[in-house]
Amino acid sequence: MKERLKTAVLTVLVAVSLVQSYLLIYRLPGTGSVVVSSAGYVRTDEMGELRSVEDTLYPDRMIIHMGEDKHTIFYPDSAFYKLIYARIQARDFAAFQVQLVSGADWAKIAADNPGIELSFGTGLPVPLLQKTMRLSADAAFETADIDRIWIYTGRGDEKPRAFFFSADGRDVYEAKQLDLTVQDVLQHVAFGEEWTPYTPLDKHTLYVPSKPIVLAEAVLETDSFTSDQMQRNLFADPAVTRNIHEQDGSEIYTDSKRSLQIEDEARWMTYTDPAAAPAIEADATESVLSAVDFVNQHGGWNGRYRAELPGGGNSDNDSDFSVRFQQYYGSLPILGSGSVRYGFMNLILQQGTVSFYERSLLETADVGKQGPQYTLPGGQMLIDRITNIEDVHGRKVVDLYPAYTPRMNGDTLRLVPGWVAVLTDGSIATFS
């Protein structure tokens, strides 16, 4: 009897110990556990979700060339985009040979040959592309920044060809070894046959839909991260911070070294850490990895984002590196500005250390309600609008894509679709 009692008591003690261990590891609210990243950042408050760098590296669009000068475009998050990109990511590319971009008539190749063109915006360094694609890079290729990948098959070719275009517009690298077949390419291209046709302009540098496209507004309920949450996430010891009230409605918190500015009306925060770093040229891959890690530990991700390196990432100071994370809702980017600065995060790093960080404090659900539908112009009407924008601004339109403009209505965020025209100086014109 005594032995059975001992056994029962021991069983209860073991069970209690297991429960306590579970609570310590998985932390109920208020237990105060922390997660320390590999870079030493301390995650002190559960806010947004965690992301890996691979989650932020993907093309901003996929142009499908079908031969006979027929084309269409798939945007991120669409079913065909995800299917094709996943298949390309699973393939190997090796034995790169460099040549001048001017050595081929790419407009004719786009018009005559079925293929897939992936656009990476301002470009990504090859070591970052290797995080999301299987590339065997040699010494010459691994120093390149790539803004386009083009895989096509010519008439009578026994295997497809794959070209990686440098962001400076001078060189193109052909992967002489790839494990895609002609049939693979043709199958992927066939997905575009029933999609909205696009017409090429200006030697295939712009594509416009041949008919209007219909997109729905999205309506999202919002909440906000608080200044207390951001202090706990950005300062090693929030207890030593002091508050400086600004007359313009913003507040500044500082620990005498770092500063955090909160703009309540705009629901926007700016963090600066002016720690001096060695004046060594910034490394792009290290900077992007550090930026993703920093966001993971200091606020997290309230949605899906895509990494962009404005101007190649380097600022006026070679030791500084700029990273922008562009937010997407569904297939389209969110372009906030003015009083509604929502839809992006900006960071500046010095040798992997973040010296500047700005982001919205708005929290939204991943999926909102569908609002009214908008019919965006296409065909000749859209071409005329592009021509008019060029005449008014005195500059050429070099890029065109659909995007959402955020508008606040109380505690509700409206995402209104429209066209974005990018001019040669980088400025944009939006219209619907």
UniProtKB/TrEMBL annotation:
Give the highest taxon in the source lineage.
Bacteria
Annotated InterPro entries = YycH, YycH/YycI_2
Tell me where in this chain the Regulatory protein YycH domain is found.
Answer: 3-420
State what protein this is by name.
Answer: Regulatory protein YycH domain-containing protein
Identify the species of origin: Saccharibacillus brassicae
